[in-house]
Amino acid sequence: MNKQSIFLVGPMGAGKSTVGRILAEKLGYEFIDSDHEIEARTGVTIPVIFDIEGEGGFRARESAVIDDITQLPGLVLATGGGAVLSADNRRHLAARGFVVYLRSTVPALVQRTKNDRNRPLLQTDNPEAVIAHLLTERGPLYEEVADLIVDTQQASVFRVVRHIQDQLVREGVVA
Ligand SMILES: Nc1ncnc2c1ncn2[C@@H]1O[C@H](COP(=O)(O)OP(=O)(O)OP(=O)(O)O)[C@@H](O)[C@H]1O
Ligand SMILES: O=C(O)C1=C[C@@H](O)[C@@H](O)[C@H](O)C1
Ligand SMILES: [Mg+2]
């Protein structure tokens, strides 16, 4: 039987990359991070892609990666925070695997992203306002595709991983 893949969605700083890597290890699944896959395919960083091609260019590359990766069984995919903006991406994510929305609050997301300069959309004087705005816009889209929602603001990375694992067993997604 093909193993169903697990797709992590949620805002910047929710922990998709961090949680996803550990979850994959625990399940014995391959781990793919769509942001890293885009960087590997282009040979440049995400800020450079935004500089040269704009957000639209980045989103086209992101959609190509999501379409490819979501067709593979038995992996954990950490998506980029804006992956759900595309209706095609949402359709592929919802139809091809088990989607986990890592939810968090604005203060926790601000705290977790403040020392990282690799997120072009947060290179602003007021990252808190940007994060709040993005959450308002994208929150319903994360919810739309989610099979499971996990609140992460109060929980350690390991507790989040453990909770997801328990739910995957309960739902019969993994043995
Ligand atoms: N539950 C948690 N508790 C405390 N810190 C966390 C938690 N989850 C993630 N972090 C920390 O927050 C930071 C951002 O996490 P991460 O890069 O995994 O987010 P992301 O969801 O992949 O963001 P992006 O969409 O920008 O790729 C990291 O330093 C990570 O260690
Ligand atoms: O929330 C977003 O729009 C983004 C999140 C990151 O994962 C990267 O995909 C990129 O920085 C854009
Ligand atoms: Mg990430």
TrEMBL record:
The cross-references to Pfam families, in alphabetical order and at most eight, read:
SKI
What this protein catalyses is: shikimate + ATP = 3-phosphoshikimate + ADP + H(+)
Q: Where does ATP bind?
A: G13, A14, G15, K16, S17, T18, R119
Which pathway features in its UniProt record?
Metabolic intermediate biosynthesis; chorismate biosynthesis; chorismate from D-erythrose 4-phosphate and phosphoenolpyruvate: step 5/7
Q: Where does Mg(2+) bind?
A: S17
What is the free-text note on the cofactor? Answer: Binds 1 Mg(2+) ion per subunit.
Q: Where does substrate bind?
A: D35, R59, G81, R138
**Is Cell wall biogenesis/degradation one of the keywords UniProt gives this record?**
no
Q: What biological process terms from GO does the record include?
A: amino acid biosynthetic process; aromatic amino acid family biosynthetic process; chorismate biosynthetic process
Q: What cofactor does its activity depend on? A: Mg(2+)
What UniProt keywords are attached to this protein's entry?
Answer: Amino-acid biosynthesis, Aromatic amino acid biosynthesis, ATP-binding, Cytoplasm, Kinase, Magnesium, Metal-binding, Nucleotide-binding, Transferase
Question: GO molecular function of the protein, one example?
Answer: magnesium ion binding
GO CC annotation = cytosol
The Enzyme Commission number assigned here is 2.7.1.71
Subcellular location per the Swiss-Prot or TrEMBL entry: Cytoplasm
Q: What class of enzyme is it?
A: transferase
The similarity annotation says:
Belongs to the shikimate kinase family.
PANTHER family recorded: SHIKIMATE KINASE, SHIKIMATE KINASE 1, CHLOROPLASTIC
Q: Subunit structure, briefly?
A: Monomer.
Concerning HAMAP family, the annotation shows: Shikimate_kinase (MF_00109)
Record's function text: Catalyzes the specific phosphorylation of the 3-hydroxyl group of shikimic acid using ATP as a cosubstrate.
Protein name in the entry:
Shikimate kinase
Q: What is the lineage of its organism?
A: Bacteria, Pseudomonadati, Pseudomonadota, Gammaproteobacteria, Thiotrichales
